[in-house]
């Protein structure tokens, strides 16, 4: 097969061995080239006279060369019987080419008439490892007339292709043996370019992933890796399949395990940062097992059954989320419970929080169920909100606000703060006191009750007591007492000075209608008319004057009910 670039008179025919395979480090490959010269003519007429023709083979290790070992090439020249003998001369002095010169006897040019030809066979050519086409050059010295000055040197060329049909796979390795978490991995290998490659690897979710990488021996993972991962490279060529495996370390990986155990019975497992459990996962210690110790502060002791065991915090125990107890939570005697917020959500009758002593230092306590303080005390400097019932068998002291959307029951007593804000009841339920209610000892203190107030025992108010609803008193009311005065008619008038705030109950002792007046600083404030034996109540303030000027005469009975201490 030839493809002459120049118009040679006798272009040779070149037939290579097919296919020509490149050599590998494990297996060298060899090729043959056969040239037939003098059979084919290009232009002109027969005969054609020839002094010589040459074949140039490119040499070296590059892909454009055919062989790197020109000295190993064997050559053979074939001439038909009856023709003069030709000679072959090999020249390998140039490292870039091997030249084979074929010529008839000197000064006796061969005459080709189309009926015969010579053949040159080059064999044992050790093909180099470079894949690609190789251009083989040839030359001739020919003449169409045979005259000495008519011989010209003409050139041409042909091309052969080197292929790599061998199957090899080696040097599979990661670009880095360890990478940072949540980054991609890069892998390299050496393999046959014609093969088809598939990469198998472990995906971040634990499943197997696969990817068809490029054929240039380099692959980057399509996903960021969060755990140590193994990689398997599959190479297919024809019916043959080969595999290589490598491993990559991920620094600071995500680890998912079924169980974790120490190397020995006395071994330990440490977690420098956080240990998280997802979904329905839990942390289990076998029956009669050991403990979990966190810096000596938190100890979990396994019990005989799954629901047994103890949790001991020798130091502070902090939870940033809700803490749920499905059974009783007990605070040791004399030990405080210090919290930002405690929420008890009602879930039937059993969902009640019981405390012997509750202290809230400027924090809030919200109870959505019932809060029962048994036998001792509850002290709050912050907000105490009870959406259910609040029961105090001991004293309940609130230095801040105390809000109850349900019923507040005090078996012993409720004491308002001294020199602080008053006790205010705004809810629709009112205030029910089975024993005593003692509010405020400071001067000017006030108790405001805007709904019904029921006191079955004593009600003591050292300041003012204001009720805008119904006030019911089943026992004695101290601080409001009567004093009786009979105003006698002097003939022209009678007058009574008001020495303190009071409520005066007046009865007309006359059989005639009487008129009474109330004066202050010389001005009459109001006048009241009373029929015979009629009784009315008159509110009076200290400093006022209660008097009667009437021609009808007659006496009045006045019951004075003082408010506060007796003057």
What is the gist of this entry?
By secondary structure, this protein is mainly β.
Number of separate helices = 0
Radius of gyration: 60 Å
Terminal Cα span? 144 Å
* Total strand segments: 49
**Poorly predicted sequence stretches spanning 5 or more consecutive residues:** 346-351
Taken from the alpha-carbon principal axes, the silhouette is rod-shaped
Commentary on this structure:
- This protein is mainly β and 567 residues long.
- It has 5 domains: 13-163, Immunoglobulin-like; 169-251, Sandwich (Immunoglobulin-like); 287-314, no CATH class; 333-473; 480-563, Sandwich (Jelly Rolls).
- Helix content is 0%, strand content 45%.
- The protein has no helices and 49 strands.
- Strands 2, 4, 6, 7, 8, 10 and 11 form a 7-stranded mixed β-sheet that branches. The protein has a 5-stranded mixed β-sheet with strand order 13-19-18-15-16, with no helix packed on it.
- It is rod-shaped.
- The model is unreliable at 346-351 (pLDDT under 50).
């Amino acid at each position: 097969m030839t493809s002459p670039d120049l118009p040679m008179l006798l272009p040779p025919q070149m037939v290579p061995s097919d296919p020509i395979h490149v050599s590998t480090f494990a297996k060298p490959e060899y090729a043959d080239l056969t040239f037939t010269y003098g059979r084919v003519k290009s232009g002109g007429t027969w005969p054609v006279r020839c002094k010589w023709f040459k074949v140039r083979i490119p040499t070296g290790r590059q892909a454009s060369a055919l062989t790197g070992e020109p000295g190993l090439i064997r050559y053979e020249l074939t001439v038909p019987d009856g023709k003069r003998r030709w000679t072959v001369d090999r020249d390998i002095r140039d490292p870039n080419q091997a030249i084979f010169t074929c010529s008839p006897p000197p000064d006796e040019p061969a005459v080709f008439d189309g009926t015969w030809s010579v053949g040159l066979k080059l064999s044992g050519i050790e093909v180099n490892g470079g894949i690609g086409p190789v251009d083989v050059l040839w030359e001739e010295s020919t003449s169409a007339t045979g005259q000495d000055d008519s011989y010209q040197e003409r050139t041409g060329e042909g091309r052969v292709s080197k292929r790599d049909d061998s199957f090899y796979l080696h040097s599979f390795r990661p670009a880095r043996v360890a990478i940072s978490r949540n980054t991609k991995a890069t892998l390299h290998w050496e393999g046959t370019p014609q093969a088809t490659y598939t990469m198998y690897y472990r995906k971040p979710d634990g499943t197997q992933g696969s990817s068809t990488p490029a054929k240039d021996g380099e692959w980057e993972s399509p996903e960021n890796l969060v755990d140590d991962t193994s990689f398997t490279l599959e190479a297919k060529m024809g019916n043959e399949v080969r595999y290589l495996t490598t491993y990559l370390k991920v620094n600071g990986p995500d680890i998912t395990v079924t169980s974790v155990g120490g190397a020995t019975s006395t071994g330990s497992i440490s977690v420098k940062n956080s240990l998280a459990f997802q979904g329905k996962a839990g942390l289990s210690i076998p029956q009669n097992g050991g403990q979990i110790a966190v810096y000596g502060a938190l100890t979990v002791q396994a019990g005989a059954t799954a629901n047994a065991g103890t949790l001991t915090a020798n130091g502070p125990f902090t939870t940033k989320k809700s803490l749920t107890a499905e059974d009783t939570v007990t605070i040791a005697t004399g030990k405080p419970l210090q919290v930002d917020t405690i929420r008890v959500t009602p879930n039937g009758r059993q969902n009640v929080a019981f405390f012997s002593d509750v202290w809230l230092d400027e924090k809030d306590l919200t109870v959505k169920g019932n809060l029962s303080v048994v036998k001792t005390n509850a002290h709050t400097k912050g907000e105490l909100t009870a959406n259910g019932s609040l029961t105090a068998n001991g004293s309940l002291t609130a230095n801040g606000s105390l809000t109850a959307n349900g019923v507040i029951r005090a078996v012993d007593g409720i004491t308002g703060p001294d020199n602080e804000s008053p006790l205010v009841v705004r809810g629709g339920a009112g205030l029910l006191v089975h024993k005593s209610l003692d509010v405020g000892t400071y001067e000017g203190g006030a108790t405001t009750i805007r709904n019904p107030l029921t006191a079955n025992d004593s009600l003591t108010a050292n300041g003012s007591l204001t009720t805008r609803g119904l006030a019911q008193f089943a026992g004695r009311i101290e601080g409001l007492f009567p004093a009786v005065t009979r105003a006698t008619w002097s003939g022209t008038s009678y007058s009574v000075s008001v020495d303190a705030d009071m409520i005066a109950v007046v009865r007309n002792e006359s059989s005639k209608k009487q008129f009474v007046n109330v004066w202050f600083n010389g001005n009459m404030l109001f006048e009241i008319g009373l029929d015979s034996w009629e009784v009315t109540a008159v509110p009076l303030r200290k400093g006022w004057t209660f008097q009667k000027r009437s021609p009808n005469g007659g006496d009045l009975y006045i019951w004075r009910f003082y408010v506060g201490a007796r003057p």
